[in-house]
Design a protein that fits this description.
- The complex is a heterodimer of chains A (about 375) and B (about 375).
- Chain A has about 375 residues and is α+β, with helices and mostly antiparallel strands.
- Chain A is about 50% helix and about 20% strand.
- Chain A has a six-stranded mixed barrel.
- In chain A, a hairpin with a 2-residue loop joins strand 3 and strand 4.
- In chain A, helix 2 crosses helix 11 and helix 9 runs parallel beside helix 14.
- With about 375 residues, chain B is an alpha+beta fold.
- Chain B has two domains: about 180 residues, no CATH class; about 180 residues, no CATH class.
- Helix content of chain B is about 50%, strand content about 20%.
- In chain B, a hairpin with a 2-residue loop joins strand 8 and strand 9.
- The longest helix of chain B is centred in the C-terminal third of the chain and has 45 residues.
- The chains are: A alpha+beta (about 375), B alpha+beta (about 375).
Chain lengths: ~375, ~375
């Protein structure tokens, strides 16, 4: 029966491929949502990843940069500087706010850099101009430059401050939080935060364990939180990704239901067009189980092909959507694709339910009808 | 021809139902995606409109209620209330904080209010707050299982949940409401800021006008007399909020909705091809009877239109159910499928992909052989 099922499926190639394509597109939709959130989460931590100090120090009770605010006294930075394990401490000010550029508002990360930071916390890759802003200046992400046609020498607005663009950074854009770099004094002025920093980037001397240094800072400097770089990035990435968990789950249900209906429609069409053949099979004594198995096999074939097409699209096409739409970064996770693959199995069985029911009810006497 | 198309659908009700369900599911996907996008913009607008003011004053250069940091000098309130036409200016402060419970973190907008701007729809507990009371949005309560009477710790300071409100979320972030007494206690007793001046003590002023005052004139008067502020009508500020949402979500949601339309096109193509193949013999017979090629295409087109007419209400109903589940279980996001723009776009999009889909099997119909009519079935 399986051979018959396969032959009848491929005898209608157009129908088979277009059904699989429909199923694939439903799965793509599910993978898309995960890829969007994963890509966005990756971009949200892009600044942290490239800054890469040994330890991040922040206000007690804070363990993120994304959607957080942190303030610590400047003398705490001095205390950390004096530790023998510490090579360098680079303070930054940080604000989550709206920047206006090219007539558009951008919900952004704004990082205030001290002039004596020797470029430690600036954007590493600069496409044009320079990375270190002086007072009244700003470094903007390349994607915003492209989207708003703003370049070096143009102006952007942060609250009532007009800032001149002196540099264009690469890889610092995310839809939710593009990173703008300004002078420390400008952000200090906006925040009225004299004598405080937001985060400290602590570089350890060679051979010092980051976890032990973080523990030492926590023990010796009161009311601060210190996290090794990897833990801090992981915490922010998880936080950003978590914001999309419910949406991804609901879209998985919607996409899977759609896929099950498409599989059901195709299997039903197959069964109805082969009613007579199936009637003969019943009449010659082929067990119901085998016939039902053939229907499920067809369902599995369509779903399997659809899933493979979706997976290929996810791995080969999605990563390049960024070139067409620079503001969107899609990151495909093999684990998520695997999860969709697991979901595809019940989808195939669900899709076979109605055709299976019809096959069970099929009258073998049909074969003797004209 | 229309009757023929209708009869064709009635011939196999199970097939018709399955087909309508498949198309309906596509319509559902498009409606839910578009409704999700519009829901985010709606939330951003409501976050402003729910503050119930005639005018809203923010820090000069700030044009958004949420997402942007606004900090006004303390004396601004007095200056604003001195302007002719202003009845009262209610203070409000917005603080972005992180709430943690049992290993879960959730960003929250802490909205501090005095006499105006508090929660609009309290669904559990009491609306009146004092001291360390906090009213939280249902999305926080649902997600982290927080109930009225529970402790709610922010930066080591313990609030007491006195109520749960609904619809107080925007930009993927829920709101929680406290009074100025609560804010001062939070600042003094917690670790939230070592230097209190780093946090804005006053973010906005919700301005009520005297009866008969000209809103635009008062708005201009405040801006002229108090340079530290920009003043907006709630409608203008709500529009700014929605525009910010469009900048953030527009490209990705547009892409996803387009994926939905592509799926729709594929499904209609699949269905119309299957229909054409299913009726190939019938088309051959009709050709033998002298029906023109155009008439046959029209017959198939009418069948697709009929299927759409059945599928659209199914899709709309399924989307309504899904949106209701979405809005109840994850109130942080709102899906608004009844927005005219959502319904209009979906209707036009569906009609377009149906037209294109109906034209796909043209070649198949053209090749239907009239001789088939004279062969045995």
């Amino acid at each position: 029966m399986l051979r018959w099922a396969w032959q009848s499926l491929i005898s209608k190639r157009v129908s088979f491929w277009s059904s699989a394509l429909g199923v694939a597109s439903a799965f793509i939709l599910v993978m898309f949502f995960d890829a969007v959130f994963r890509g966005e989460a990756k971009q949200i931590v892009a600044y942290l990843v490239q800054a890469k100090p040994s330890v991040w120090v922040m206000q007690s009770g804070v363990s993120n940069m994304h959607m957080s605010s942190s303030f610590i006294w400047d003398w705490k930075a001095d205390r950390i500087r004096q530790m023998s394990e510490v090579e360098r401490v680079t303070p930054i000010l940080y604000l989550n706010s709206v920047v206006r550029t090219g007539g558009k508002d951008w919900f952004s990360y704004i990082v205030g850099l001290e002039s004596d930071s020797q470029g430690r916390a600036v954007a590493r890759h600069i496409a044009a101009g320079r990375g270190m802003p002086n007072p009244g200046e700003v470094v903007i992400p390349d994607v915003i430059g492209k989207l708003t046609n703003i370049g070096v020498g143009d102006y952007v607005f942060l609250t009532d401050k007009k800032l001149k663009v002196v540099g264009i950074s690469e890889g610092m854009f995310s839809m939710a939080n593009p990173v703008f770099f300004v002078a420390f004094s400008d952000l200090d002025d906006i925040l009225s935060s004299s004598g405080t920093y937001s985060y400290l980037l602590v570089d350890a001397r060679p051979g010092v364990d980051a976890r032990q240094l973080a523990d030492k800072i926590m023990n010796e400097v009161e009311k601060v939180n210190a996290l090794p770089h990897d833990a801090f990035v992981k915490s922010d990435f998880a936080m950003a990704l978590k914001m999309g968990v419910e949406i991804i789950s609901i879209m998985t249900i919607i996409g899977s239901t759609l896929a099950a209906l498409l599989v059901g429609f195709t299997s039903y069409t197959q069964v109805m067009s082969k009613r007579r053949d199936l009637g003969i099979a019943k009449a010659v004594g082929i067990p119901r189980r085998a016939i039902y198995g053939a229907v499920i096999f067809q369902s599995l074939c369509i779903t399997g092909l659809g899933f493979m097409m979706a997976a290929l699209f996810a791995f080969l096409v999605m990563p390049y959507i960024h070139t067409l739409l620079p503001q969107i970064t899609l990151v495909v996770s093999p684990a998520q694709v695997g999860k969709v693959g697991l979901v595809a199995i019940p989808v195939a069985f669900l899709g076979a339910l109605i055709p299976g029911y019809l096959v069970m009810r099929l009258d073998p006497a049909l074969v003797f009808h004209n | 021809m229309f009757r023929l198309a209708w009869r064709q659908l009635l011939l196999d009700p199970a097939r018709t139902l399955l087909t309508a369900l498949a198309i309906g599911a596509v319509v559902t996907v498009i409606l839910v995606l578009s409704g999700f996008e519009q829901g985010q913009y709606y939330q951003l607008k409501q976050a402003v409109l729910d503050r119930k003011a005639d005018l809203i004053a923010l820090q000069s250069g700030v044009a958004n209620l949420l997402a942007a940091r606004s900090s006004l000098p303390q004396l601004t309130r007095i200056y604003v209330e001195d302007i002719p036409g202003v009845k009262i200016a209610h203070p409000m402060t917005a603080l972005p904080v992180m709430y943690q419970k049992g290993g879960h973190k959730m960003p929250i907008y802490l909205m501090v209010y005095d006499t105006r701007g508090g929660p609009v729809k309290v669904i559990d507990g009491k609306a009146k707050q004092k001291g360390n009371d906090i009213i939280i949005d249902s999305s926080i309560a649902n997600k982290l299982n927080v109930k009225v009477g529970d402790d709610f710790i922010i930066s080591d300071f313990t609030f007491k949940v006195s109520g749960i409100t609904e619809g107080a979320a925007a930009l993927f972030t829920a709101m929680a409401f406290i009074t100025y007494d609560g804010m001062i206690d939070l600042f003094l007793e917690s670790e939230i800021a070592p230097d209190i001046s780093t946090f804005p003590l006053l973010s906005f002023l919700l301005v009520d006008l005297k009866k008969g005052a000209d809103r635009e004139q008062v708005r201009r008067s405040i801006e002229n007399a108090v340079p530290a502020v920009d003043v907006y009508t709630p409608e203008a500020l709500a529009k700014n909020g929605a525009n910010l949402g469009k900048e953030i979500l527009g490209p990705v949601m547009g892409l996803l909705v387009n994926v939905g339309y592509i799926i729709g096109l594929l499904v209609i193509t699949l269905i119309s091809s299957a229909e054409a193949r299913h009726r190939l013999r019938g088309f051959g017979v009709m050709k033998a009877l002298g029906f023109s090629h155009a008439k046959l295409v029209l017959a198939l087109g009418q069948q697709i239109v009929l299927l759409l007419l059945i599928a659209l209400p199914i899709g709309f109903l399924m989307a309504l159910v899904l949106a209701s589940i979405f809005n109840t279980t994850v109130p942080l996001y709102i899906v608004r499928i009844t927005e005219p723009i959502v319904l209009g776009q979906t209707l036009i999009g569906t009609a377009l992909f149906a037209m294109v889909g109906a034209l796909i099997p043209l070649r198949m119909i053209r090749r239907a052989d009239p001789m088939i009519a004279f062969q045995e079935a």
